[in-house]
Every structure is written in structure tokens, then in C-alpha cells.
Amino acid sequence: MEFGVPQLEILAVFLAVYALIVVRRIGRFKVEVWMAMLLGAVALLSLGAVSLGEALMAINSQVILFLIGSFLIVGVMAQTGLLQAVAVAVLRRARTPSRLLLFVIAFVSVASAFLVNDAVVLVVTPIVIASCTIAGLKKTPYIIAVALSSNIGSALTPIGNPQNVLIKIESGISTLGFMGKMAIPVVLAVAAEYVVLKAIYRKEMSRGTVLEIPERGPDLMGKAEWRMLIAITVGVMIGFITSDLTGVPIAIVALVGGTMALLLSPDRRESLKRIDWGTMVFFASMFVVMHSVEASGLLGFIIDPFRSWLFVGGVGSVAAIFGLSIALSQLTSNVPFVAMMLPIFRSAGASPDQWLSLAAGSTLGGNLTLLGAAANVIVLEAAECKGESFSFIEFMKGGVPVTIISSAIAIAVLSLLLGI
User: Fold this and answer.
1) Which residues, if any, are the signal sequence (predicted)?
2) What is the pLDDT of residue 2?
3) Cα–Cα distances in angstroms (integers) from residue 416 to residues 5, 181, 411, in the given order
4) Which of 3, 81, 102, 153 is the least buried, fewest Cβ under 10 Å from its Cβ?
5) Residue 29 has what DSSP assignment?
6) Domain membership flag for residue 208
7) Phi/psi at 390 (nearest 5 deg)?
């Protein structure tokens, strides 16, 4: 392709946005991922690279509505104390450090599969830290377990994380088909995570401490309201799973559930504040940036060298998609990477197996480093709010082996299930 001034302007903005996502600073100013993407969208609008009408059309309203509805459900569950009560009820059954690790991994994995993982870790991280403080345990293994488990668990369903939602809406892959093929890889990956973290932190896990985690305080709401909220959540889960049969978009299912949950909130304005609006700004801005890059022809130019590997078919295609997903997710984080790949997969007429490989590779690859997934950064920020932290290298001690093992398992299983 020929590069003119418009293409060079768009390329410069695109590279600047992704550079900001990697370094996350401008001088002494911290730049959040959503702020970097917003700066890019505004720059493209200001340069005339995309019109206001085109920008509004580029924003995928289904994704935005799905996220708003999902965040409302999780937010009200947290606001009313229900999610915290369930978490504490599970963790109280752990009597030893290693069992606490197992229970943290299991609870976060399951919760992240059916609720947006970014929202889950925001609520669960402080609970895990408090539990470790009470038990007198080193907190790092358990905090890292929250991050790794949220990514692995969310890989089970097309509604567990934002990048899977993007792929579900774009590809039309069936929810049950997605879950059927990802069930074995996710279960084995969760088991592998437990074994790896227990081995890395064997000194902490070998302590014979008997844990005593106290009951929660008085309920913030009556049991009847909790039962209603549970019923709404179960109804939403059923709606997600059967959406392909009913024809009701998952965005509508989430929005109906979120609205019903909002009715049960003791403070509805507070519930609206609990929505991660930075995530909404990130997605809206990302759609604008990626539309501009795609329309300019730059995206095809960037990815063309990889096409013969990605869409060759069979086991080679699965392995290539995983490799590219894992590598580039560390540079851009997995959601922006998937957004960049959507038009490429669409234009190539990607098969369901290739779409599934993109979802699994980008999600499991998010565990390799701290920057691989937004959930990792959310866990770190939530921990820092409680006076705890962990380093980039500390995260990689568990993240690298877990990613290698879980990805190898997924590649093997998905390759065996090709075309089924």
C-alpha cells in the first residue's frame, strides 16, 4: 500500500497510543490504559482522520451495554454484601494455607467464568488480603492467585472477560459450543495453577497453621433481598447460555439483569458510581481508534506477514494464533490486541476454531506478565489500596509457568477437537 499524509497521521497516533499503554506515563503523569486510548480517539477526531458520525457508528453498543449491565450486577452484589458473604463463606472452610490457596483459586475461577472478571477481582482482592491478615499469612501467593485465576476462569465462557465478549459478538460463536471446548483446558489449567503456586511458595504452604476466619458481621440487607439478587443472577446466567437459542442478544440479557439488580440496591446512585466508567471510555475510544486504523488499510499492512500462519488451518493455525496472542498481549494487553485482530479475522473468514483459539490464547496469555491483562493491573491497584503490593518479577514467577502449561494444554485439547 502507498503511505500518504492521512495514513502517516493515523499510524503516528496508533503507535503513540500503544506506546502509552506500554509505558503508562507522560513525564511525571501516570496515564491509565483508558486515558491513552481516549487521547488517541480525540487526536484522530481532531486531525479529521475520522468524522464524528463515523466515530459514533464505530462504537459497538452491544459491548458497552453488556459491560454496563454486568458491572451493575456485580456492583449491587458487592454493595449489598452478598458477594463478600459468599466469598467469606467459602474461604472460612479452608483450615490450612494450602487449602486457602485452593479455595481462592476455585472461587475466583468460577466467579470469573460467569461474571466479568475485572469486576470480580476488584471485590475479591480486599477480602483475600483481609483473610490472610487475620490468619497471619504472607499475602503475595494469594493475591497473585486472584489475578491468575480470574484470567483462567474467564476463559471458560464467552462472557467471562471483555475480549471474549468482543469475539462472541463479532464471530457469533455459540455459548455452549465455546464452553464445551474450553471446559477441559480450563479445569486442567486451574489444577496446574494450584500445583505451580503451591510449589513456588512451598515454604508458606507447608505451615501447619490452623486458620480461623471469622464470620461476617450483620447482613446489610434482609435474606429475602439476597435471594432475589441470587435469582436475578441465575436468570442472567441462563439467559447468557441460551442466548443462541432464544435469539436475545447477551447485551440485552445483561442490561435487563443489571436494571433488575439496581432496583434492589439500597443506594442506586452509589451503584451507578461503582460501574467502572474508565472501562467504558476505554472501549468506546478503542472502537474509534481501531476503525480508523482499519479504514486506512494500515491494519492489513501490519498483519499481512502473519496471515499465512494464522489461517493455514489445523493444528498449525491453533499454535500460531496462540503464539501471536501471547506475545502481543504483553505489549498492548489482551483486550486491545483482540480489538486489533477482529477485522483481520473477519476479513479472513476465520473458522469457529480459529476464533476460539484467539479467545483462549489472548486470555491465557494474559497471565504471562503483569501487563498481559487488565485484571492483573486491577488486582495490583486493589492490593496497593490495602497497603500490599508485588513486583513485576514476582508476578512472572507464577505467571510464566502457569501460562506455558495452560497454553500447552489448551493447544493440545483444541487441536484434538478441531472441527467437532
Assistant:
1) none
2) 58
3) 48, 10, 9
4) 3
5) E
6) yes
7) -150, 155
Q: Give the model's confidence band at 420: pLDDT under 50 very low, under 70 low, under 90 confident, else very high.
A: low
Nearest to 377 by CA among 24, 51, 12: 24
| Contact between 50 and 294 (Cβ < 8 Å) | no
pLDDT > 60? residue 116: yes
Cα–Cα distance measured from residue 375 to residue 118, given in angstroms and rounded to the nearest whole number: 5
- Tell me the pLDDT band of 220, cut-offs 50, 70 and 90: very low
Domain count along the chain: 1
Answer yes or no: is 230 within a domain. yes
pLDDT, mean of residues 391-406 = 92
Closest CA to 396 of 174, 128, 188, 200: 200
Query: What does the angle CA 173 – CA 177 – CA 179 come to, to the nearest 5 degrees?
Result: 110
- Quick check: is 117 in a domain? yes
Return the percentage of the chain with pLDDT > 70, whole number. Answer: 94
The secondary structure element, H or E, covering residue 89 is: helix 82-91
C-alpha cell recorded at residue 97:
494455607
In a domain? residue 194 = yes
Burial of 202 (0-12, 13-18, 19+ CB in 10 A): exposed
Name residues whose C-beta falls within 8 Å of residue 111's C-beta, 6 or more positions apart in sequence.
83, 120, 124, 153
Q: From start to end of 90-191, where are the E strands?
A: none
C-alpha cell at 168: 462472541
- Cβ neighbours of residue 202 closer than 8 Å, sequence gap 6 or more: none
Q: What is the mean pLDDT of residues 223-249?
A: 86
d(CA 417, CA 173): 15
388 has pLDDT over 90: no
Q: Is the pLDDT of residue 245 over 90?
A: no
Concatenating the DSSP letter of every residue in 186-221 gives HHHHHHHHHHHHHHHTHHHHT--PPP-PPPP-S-SS
pTM of structure: 0.83
Count CB atoms within 10 A of the CB of residue 417. Answer: 16
**From its phi and psi, is residue 314 left (phi > 0), alpha (psi between -120 and 50) or beta?**
left
Q: Tell me the mean pLDDT in the region 13-19.
A: 85
Q: What is the mean pLDDT of residues 246-263?
A: 91
Q: In which domain, by residue range, is 394 found?
A: 7-418
